[in-house]
Amino acid sequence: MSINVNLVFAGVVAAIAAPAPATASESIVHRFHRTYQTLQSVRCTFVLDGTHTGQLFAERGKGYVLALADRKIISNGTTVWNITPTTKTVIVNSALQNGEDLSLERLFFTLLSVYRATAVNGATNQLELRPPAPAVRVAGVQSARVTVDNNMRVTKVVVNDGATESTWVIKNLQLNAKPLATERFTYEPPSSWTTVDLR
């Protein structure tokens, strides 16, 4: 499993559309699948492997805005703009489709909705996720251990590709959030900036 920082880090004041409340008889597995199979947008802050931090806003099938300390990455699903204000540089590239990189929006919209969950024995807030078939692996991920809060919001994901593990710590998670005015999936650089088009 390759985690490409440029793709991984591909935006907190909106109303939160919380998951529907659980019934007394509904299991954590059913609540989890009900929440993430219908997820349309996500906003959160995150820490990857204790080192990389950022903020993400993404909408299913539309794109994402990923803000880092030194740059911002915007994609509309077809084109990716890698924006570095300190050097006034924008690198434009084609978005990779179904590659081997596990980006955070791909984790939310594909892995969490496609992989099958089972409750971890002895835990009330953890699930083990595995692909429904070997050919359906997302970015080579063999399994993922997901921690959720009482409202079924993910707080931590540990992904394993059979050789290495990577850990996402998720904070301030908003499910089905509305985009802010600054969260647009396209970018037009200032005319004085340097643009490098790699498409």
Structural description of this entry:
With 199 residues, this protein is mainly beta. It has a domain of 134 residues. Helices cover 12% and strands 37% of the residues. It is built from 3 helices and 12 strands, in the order ααββββββαββββββ. A 12-stranded mixed β-sheet has the order 7-8-9-10-11-1-2-3-4-5-6-12. It starts with a helix and ends with a strand. The relative contact order is 0.25. About 8% of the residues have low confidence.
Q: How is the topology of this model organized?
A:
Elements: H1 5-8, H2 28-36, E1 41-48, E2 52-59, E3 63-67, E4 72-75, E5 79-84, E6 89-94, H3 104-114, E7 116-119, E8 126-130, E9 143-148, E10 154-160, E11 165-175, E12 194-197
Parallel strand pairs: 6-12
Antiparallel strand pairs: 1-2, 1-11, 2-3, 3-4, 4-5, 5-6, 7-8, 8-9, 9-10, 10-11
Largest sheet, in brief, is: 12 strands, mixed
Portion of residues within helices: 10-25%
As a percent range, the share of strand residues is 35-45%
| Spatial sequence of strands, sheet with the most strands | 7-8-9-10-11-1-2-3-4-5-6-12
Roughly how many Å apart are the termini?
A: 25 Å
SS element count, helices: 3
**Average pLDDT level:** 87
Structure summary, number of beta strands: 12
- Outline, from the CA principal axes? elongated
pLDDT < 50 runs, ≥5 residues: 5-20
Concise summary:
This protein is mostly beta strands and 199 residues long. The protein is built from three helices and twelve strands.
